[in-house]
Amino acid sequence: MPPSHDSDSETHATRDAERVQMAMAAGAIVGTWFWDVARDRLSVDEALAHAFGLDPALPRENLRLEQVVHTVHPDDQAELAEAIRAALARGGRYVHQYRARGADGGYRWLEAVGRVDLDAGGRAVRFPGVLIDIGERRRLEAERDQARSLLDSFIEAVPGVVYAKDRQGRLLIGNRGTTELIGRPPEAYIGRTDAEVLSDPVQAAAVMAADARVMDSGQAEQLEEAVNFPDGRRAWWLSTKAPLRDEAGAVVGLVGTSLDITARRTAEQGHREIEERYRLAAQATNDAIWDWRMADGHVIWNEALRTLFGHDIAQTSAHWWLEHIHPGDRARIDAEIHAVIDGGGSAWTGEYRFRRADGSYASVFDRGTVLRDAGGAPVRMIGAMLDLSARRQAEAVLAEREERLRLATDAGDLGFWDVDLVHDQLVWPARTKAMFGIPADVPVSMRDFYEGLHPDDREATSAAFAAAADPARRALYDVEYRTVGKEDGIVRWVAAKGRGLFEDDRCVRVVGVAMDITRRKADEARLKELNERLEARVAEEVASRLQVEEALRQAQKMEAVGQLTGGIAHDFNNMLATVIGPLDVLATRLGDSDPRTRRYIELALDGALRAAQLTQRLLAFSRQQPLQPVALDPNRLVAGMSGLLAHSLGSSVRLETVLAGGIWWIHADENQLENVILNLAVNARDAMPDGGRLTVETANCDLDHRYAADNAGVQAGQYVLIAVTDTGAGMTPEVMAKAFDPFFTTKQVGRGTGLGLSQVYGFVKQSAGHVKIYSELGQGTTVKVYLPRLLRRPQQQDANPARAASALPLGEAREVVLVVEDEPAVREFSVQVLEDLGYRVLEAGGAEAALRLLDAHPEITLLFTDVVMPGLNGRQLADRARETRPDLKVLFTTGYSRNAVVHNGVLDPGVHLIGKPFTAEELAQRVRAVIDGLAPLR
Q1: What pLDDT digit, counting tens, does each position of 426-460 carry?
Q2: Do β-strands 653-658 and 692-703 pair in parallel, antiparallel, or remain unpaired?
Q3: Is-contact 282 400, C-beta < 8 A?
Q4: Is the confidence at residue 616, as pLDDT, over 80?
Q5: Could you give phi then psi for residue 234, rounded to 5 degrees?
Q6: What is the 3-state secondary structure (H, E, C) of 583-643?
Q7: Per-residue CA distances from 766 to 475, 624, 632, 761, 905 (Å)
Q8: What is the β-pairing status of strands 692-703 and 717-726?
Q9: With 50 as the cut, is the pLDDT of residue 157 above it?
Q10: Residue 854, helix vs strand vs coil
């Protein structure tokens, strides 16, 4: 029968309502469409036609799909066609992004959001939807991603350590240098303070004190910090720290960079010490040398005291010297020199003004060395006074430079060399000749140099010298080579460095130094041998720990995924509560008056219930489902499931049960444990498409400390084992590694959600147990579930009293229910259902309003309250109410398991709870049970 005119009107009205609803939900609407798939009739509004640049002459009704999508960018048409085909095949929500040419001829990014409705036979009948302009959103996302990528690249490229901390000193970000400094991966230190991640508490306290000073003052600082690396090395870092401010300018943390200046600091310190020694030695014969005997204060001077300062004496007292220091400098010098002597030091330096014989003052630089006896007591102090006046300055500088070179080569055990390329002459002092096994009095030439090189090093050394003398290259001559002694035949190692001296484009000389490093090479060889032995031992130790570390990484991964999926499931529960309940009531009230509409409601309700089941599995995996554990006999539970298992496995799979005698009892949620065994059995059945054998086995077992050490998160102790073994296809190691991951499945599309084994994993971990998979390709699979032993066996298990089965148990008008719910849609649904059941209902949107109603209505029979609410939560509300009404019946509801009535995943004793989402029938049954005083429903 063709549809009537009224039917067409209703269809158009429904279509317009759907368009309005989707437009309100989507935002930034470009246009809407409605496609009657069954009759292939496509209609669009004027905005969508303009967005696609359609010919104004074309009608807006009864279009063909190709007339609309031909304006889609050629690169996007294939994906769009596939997305439409897939949506028509599966039905439900449709979302796709692509570019379309508008009326102005330019392309812009659009997002199509729609829904495909299927008839009872699974065929697409309707496809309405809206278009959203997402060009700006995509541009902002691209800019955000580029900025984030540039920031990450910059942080990683910066040398040294780059980090940021919050106001409490917790690390927010760190680059590769930070990871190397701490010696732990980012996940081990992000979110923690220096006191938590650094092994040296003193170092951590110093760093945090400096950080706090910068954040409190709001001023940037640059400071040098001592750093101890995890491998025992000690280093110095130059750190720049600055306050991190928010948009309002308030200090919210700290940013900093650090560079390793250990080498520079060491070099500077060494340089200062060498400079001082060189200066003292160079001026020893030109300065006023003094020798101070500590016992009696007697001082002996050299002739320079007279020649430099005019004092014609050779011996004085220490007091005489102090009296000739300028009064403005005297106290300071006296304190400084005695600080060195009394403090156990050995070297002293000071600058002061010294009075000449003519009464004028000379600026002098004085330095001395304390000589001590075997007990450390000061005996003598020898030093020299350098006249820093202008008359002596030039002579002092020249003498210092000449003596510095000689002392440097002597102190560093260096041999000097000078090659005159113009006159073909080689200058070697005795020390350099000795490195080639040549006596000090024998003349040498470049031939002696080349002939003295070890044959294996001759080519590389000659090439390096040629590069240093090449005007085009002017390379640094820096080589290590072996020499064969000309007279003694001894093989020595020599390290040489030098540079060429050039006049215009010609090298005239190459000068440098050489050092005998034979002993160092021998030490390096011994050290290398020791390192190789150590590395072998370390490799053995590392190999033995790899297995444990891999198990730990797997456990950490599962924990992280569990937290993520649990959070999604909790939010989804609250949303489903506003869908399932009203659909259930609507289906009941509609009855059979409109079969087609009822069918649509049933389809929607079925989808919502399946979503709720999926949510429950996510909660199980994340170990956030409320459990009601009881004492269980594992053998009785497995035996009682035999019929259900046999029915689920089918005739092609043979079921065997092996139940151990004297099995221990366990403490677990009976329903959830049955679901675990059923899930494992169904997975095993799917692994045996051609039939096979499934074995369910129970046993007592002890997991020792060695097993616990090899399996992260396992506590040693007594467990009950429930093993499910099949003779199916088996798994590869890669599949086993991911088997417990949520949504991971090897089944065909549509054959599984990938949550079966993840639900098993979550329940077992929440029950303080352990689960392990053993499998080989072609040999089958065994899944072993270990649950802790219940040490005290119960005397008798009392069954819950039988409840009469009734569709919807009714209430009485004298029974008053107070509904407290901060979600308006859930509160409205609950109130309506309870009123339909015959109860008198009061409602409140929060705890404060509920307390006022409880005071005003003493006749309230039952408090039905959400647990998680702003202000006082449901548990606190119930406790406050029972202070004056101890007999008040309370029924809690929640979509979030970690709350005030569920602790460690287990429902508190004596608490009645109905989880969101719930149907009208479930609410009726649970309210009636609480009012009648029955035990909590499981």
Answers
A1: 999 888 999 999 998 899 998 999 999 999 999 99
A2: parallel
A3: yes
A4: no
A5: -115, 135
A6: HHHHHHHHCCCCHHHHHHHHHHHHHHHHHHHHHHHHHHHCCCCCECCEEECHHHHHHHCHH
A7: 69, 8, 17, 9, 7
A8: antiparallel
A9: yes
A10: helix
Buried b (16+ CB within 10 A) or exposed e, 381-401: bbbbbbbeeeebeeebeebbe
Query: Tell me: the pLDDT tens digits for 493-514?
Result: 999 999 999 988 899 999 998 9
> pLDDT tens for residues 311-353?
999 999 999 999 999 999 999 999 999 999 999 899 999 999 9
Residue 453 per-residue DSSP state: B
Distance CA 169, CA 253 (A): 7
Name the amino acid, one letter, at 693: R
Token pair listed for 768: 């303080």
Q: What phi and psi values does residue 426 have, to the nearest 5 degrees?
A: -125, 130
- pLDDT band for 722, please (50, 70, 90 cuts): very high
What is the spatial order of strands in the sheet that 913-915 belongs to? 840-844, 816-820, 860-866, 889-894, 913-915
User: What is the C-alpha separation between 323 and 319, in angstroms, rounded?
Assistant: 6
Question: How far apart are the C-alpha atoms of 680 and 724, rounded to whole Å?
Answer: 7
- pLDDT score at 2: 42
Q: Do 2 and 32 form a contact (C-beta atoms < 8 A)?
A: no
Q: What band does 40 get if pLDDT is binned at 50, 70 and 90?
A: confident
For the stretch 17-35, pLDDT in tens is: 555 455 444 446 888 889 9
Could you give the CA distance from residue 517 to residue 492 in angstroms, rounded to a whole number? 8
Q: What is the mean pLDDT of residues 520-527?
A: 88
Residues 480 and 478: their CA atoms lie apart, in Å, by 7
Q: Which residues, 6+ apart, have CB-to-CB distance to 383 below 8 Å?
A: 289, 290, 292, 348, 366, 367, 368, 369
Helices (H) and strands (E) in the chain, counts: 29, 35
Q: Is 560 exposed, middle or buried (0-12, 13-18, 19+ CB in 10 A)?
A: exposed
Contact between residue 312 and residue 295 where contact means Cβ atoms under 8 Å apart = no
Instruction: Give CA–CA dist 931/809, Å, rounded.
Output: 11
- Pick the residue with more confidence: 357 or 553? 357
Contacts of 826 (CB under 8 A, 6+ apart): 577, 578, 581, 866, 916
Exposure of 862 by Cβ count < 10 A (0-12 exposed, 13-18 middle, 19+ buried)? buried
Q: For residue range 61-112, list pLDDT tens digits in order.
A: 888 888 788 888 999 989 999 999 999 999 999 999 999 888 788 888 989 9
Read off the pLDDT of residues 579-591 as tens digits, 9 standing for 90 and up.
776 776 776 666 6
Q: How far apart are the first and last CA of the chain?
A: 51
354 phi, psi to nearest 5 deg: -115, 135
Which of 176, 157, 170, 160 lies closest to 238 in space, CA to CA?
160
How far is it, in rounded angstroms, from Cα 3 to Cα 5? Answer: 7
The model's pLDDT over 186-203, given as tens digits with 9 standing for 90+, comes to: 888 888 898 888 778 888
H or E stretch at 520:
helix 518-590
Q: How far apart are CA 868 and CA 874, in angstroms?
A: 6
